[in-house]
Specification:
heterodimer, A: five-stranded parallel beta sheet, 7 helices, B: 2 domains, globular
Chain lengths: ~200, ~475
């Protein structure tokens, strides 16, 4: 069964066509990597999929239903970490993650484990302004794993991660696949792509 | 890695309470602090708002040889109100009016929490604030004499129309860009404002006479307003769950930039965001090769500057509209037309200094262009200078008394002021502070803020000396 279906996706900025009728499918429990040169529209594609940008044409389906971000059940199933995440300046790392788990009807039981796995333990009580760019990236990624999900959308998740962080990321993505989560991600890291990709989707070539 | 999942998603109120609790543990702001801020805001609104209303009232009522005909003054007032309503609609549409900060989007709005429950308190507060503001405005208009016999009804009518405006803009936010009607109210109101001003100006200069404007009766204004407010609030309530992340997020970016620009006293932060949006809407342009009309690169730089101006029709429109404003001022307050002419000329010239501003803000761009930096900057001043010359001639009949030599000096000052403003370096918040009997005076900050307007003050001084 296909978790995600994108049909004829069109996105233009004025008269400049960024996505020209893009089609793709991601089956349940598969990892699809979007590939393409800079400016190909990888980030725009991911933004349209998660509802952070409005396509000018085409459709996005989650398990056969229109992926409408205003539908709470869609929001419950879709986890994403794009580059536009921001933080409350006066909440700590662990408070952010507990808040998100709570907002999804969960509890804080899994948060400590996610914090530890992402190496955020020393920073758990730090406020966002004191985090390095790598730690902020880890916090953004952690936000995807403290909540339920059927589809995971990640934009260049390897960015700003050190070698250990990249190893953890590859292992986590493989665990996601095993758990039946569909993953759509953009990446420029050949090693990560080689390790995890089930499908390669070329755009803008 | 496992995450516990409970059965129920929390309410928006529970989420907010949790955030408030978390935030309180990291910083303290007492009720007394909040009440003090509120008191200061109200005090400033009452004192300065009252003074403004009293001064406009005095100006409108006073038959004086220094002022234009009463009916024309009132009609210009109507044009200003219409244009202000159009700009208010555009402002509401630009920021949402409902928005969620990037942090709220990531950690709250993107979760399954009910979106209507999330947005309803904000909608209620914004609608009430808008209703209060327009009620005060309507009251002020009534006090100014347009409709003084029914002050209360007019104020109430203004209030419900304020609520209607916000509710309608929420409905428009739900519609998004799918349909064209959300753009209409702003365009129609601005167009009507401009048309009214143009009719008054034409009538004035052709010797026509206009009757004094009459507003619809207060009770009718209120009755129709209540029906419109109820209908638009119901539609807005139904639209709340349909407001998507795109519409909630784009306004937040603009609001954050506006807040930063206000706090930092640096409008370039806001104009930068607006520029990016404008050019994203355009997307693509037709690239053509530059022609070297005469040796050297100046002709190419000038062509690039001209192309940039043509691609910014909004700036050219504002430049032309400011000419109409000058004519309107000459009718409303002929005695002040000369001074205002200098100020509006500065504003009109500023509309044409986009290239110079971009160049000055970007050391990388200047390095890439290379050569003599002063010459490059001066080349980018050619179009604004020619624009000022054309504007000055166009508004000559509405500029009050003239002394030709002084006019030349004033235009030079205005160009220099626009140059100084466009080449202002990024704001620096350190620097010298002087201790005065009234408190600390940030000299360096004031010097930075005065860069540009300082030469404008010289131009006004020249005008004052010349006509006396």
């Amino acid at each position: 069964m296909d978790a995600l279906t994108v049909r004829g996706l069109l996105r233009k900025f004025g008269s400049h066509v960024v996505l020209d009728h893009v089609d793709l499918t991601v089956p349940v429990g598969k990892i699809a990597v979007v590939l393409g040169p800079n400016g190909a529209g990888k980030t725009t594609l991911l933004r349209c999929v998660v509802g952070a940008d409005r396509p000018d044409g085409g459709e996005v389906l989650l398990e056969g239903r229109p992926l409408d971000e205003t539908d709470p059940s869609i929001r419950a199933a879709l986890a994403s970490a794009l580059d536009d995440i921001d933080f409350f300046p006066d909440l700590s790392v662990v408070e952010h993650l507990e808040l998100l788990a709570f907002a999804h009807g969960g509890d804080a039981d899994g948060v400590a484990e996610v914090v530890a796995e992402l190496g955020l333990d020393p920073a758990r009580d730090q406020l966002p302004a004191t985090l390095s760019s790598g730690q902020r990236r880890r916090l953004a990624l952690a936000s995807c794993f403290v909540r339920p999900r059927k589809l995971l959308v990640l934009d260049e998740p390897e960015q700003r991660l050190d070698v250990r962080g990249r190893e953890w990321l590859a292992a986590q993505l493989l665990r996601e696949r095993k758990a039946g989560t569909a993953v759509l991600m953009a990446s420029h890291d050949p090693e990560l792509i080689e390790k995890v990709a089930d499908l390669r989707i070329e755009i803008g070539t | 890695m496992s995450v516990g999942v409970a059965a129920a998603v929390p309410s928006a109120g529970a989420w907010r309470a949790r955030v408030r609790r978390g935030r309180r543990t990291h910083h303290e702001r007492s009720l007394g602090d909040a009440l003090t801020d509120l008191y200061m805001l109200l005090w400033m609104a009452v004192v300065y708002g009252g003074a403004l209303v009293a001064s406009i009232h005095r100006h409108l009522q006073e038959p004086s040889r220094f002022l234009g005909a009463t009916a024309e003054r009132y009609w210009i007032g109507v044009a200003v109100l219409l244009a202000a309503a159009g700009l208010a609609w555009r402002g509401l549409r630009a920021v949402g009016p409902l928005l969620a900060t990037a942090a709220e989007q990531a950690w709250g709005v993107s979760t399954p929490i009910d979106r209507r429950a999330w947005l309803l308190p904000r909608f209620t507060w914004i609608a009430l604030a808008s209703g209060l503001a327009t009620a005060l405005l309507a009251f002020a208009v009534a006090v100014l004499g347009l409709h003084s016999p029914t002050l209360g009804w007019v104020a109430l009518g203004g209030g419900v129309w304020g609520v209607t405006g916000v509710a309608a803009s929420v409905v428009a936010q739900g519609v998004g860009e799918r349909r064209g009607w959300p753009r209409l109210p702003g365009a129609v109101l601005l167009g009507l404002g401009g048309l009214t001003a143009a009719v008054v100006v034409t009538s004035h200069y052709t010797g026509g006479e206009l009757p004094r404007p009459m507003l619809p009766p207060g009770r009718a204004l209120l009755g129709v307003g209540i029906v419109a407010a109820v209908a638009s609030v119901v539609l807005a309530f139904r639209a709340l769950p349909q407001l998507d992340l795109v519409s909630l997020g784009s306004g937040a970016q603009l609001a954050a930039a506006a807040a930063t620009a206000t706090i930092g006293m640096d409008p370039s932060v806001l104009s930068g965001v607006l520029e990016v949006r404008r050019w994203r809407r355009v997307g693509k342009v037709r690239s053509r090769p530059f022609r070297s009309i005469f040796p050297g690169r100046i002709s190419v730089l000038l062509q690039a500057e001209l192309r940039r101006q043509v691609r910014r029709p909004g700036a050219l429109g504002a430049w032309a509209a400011l000419g109409l404003v000058q004519y309107a001022v000459a009718i409303v307050a002929p005695a002040a037309a000369g001074v205002v002419h200098v100020v509006i000329a500065y504003l009109a010239t500023n509309r044409l200094t986009g290239g110079l501003r971009t160049l000055s803000r970007s050391p990388g761009l200047r390095r890439a262009l290379g050569g003599d930096e002063s010459r490059v900057r001066l080349t980018h001043l050619v179009v604004p200078t020619l624009g000022l010359a054309a504007w000055w001639v166009m508004t000559w009949p509405a500029a009050g008394a003239h002394v030709p030599f002084a006019d030349l000096l004033m235009t030079l000052c205005v160009v220099a002021a626009a140059y100084r403003a466009a080449t202002k370096p990024p704001m620096s918040y350190g620097g010298a502070v002087m201790e005065t009997p009234l408190g600390l005076f940030p000299i360096e900050l004031v010097v930075q803020l005065a860069r540009g307007p300082d030469l404008l003050a010289v131009a006004i001084l020249i005008h004052a000396v010349a006509i006396h």
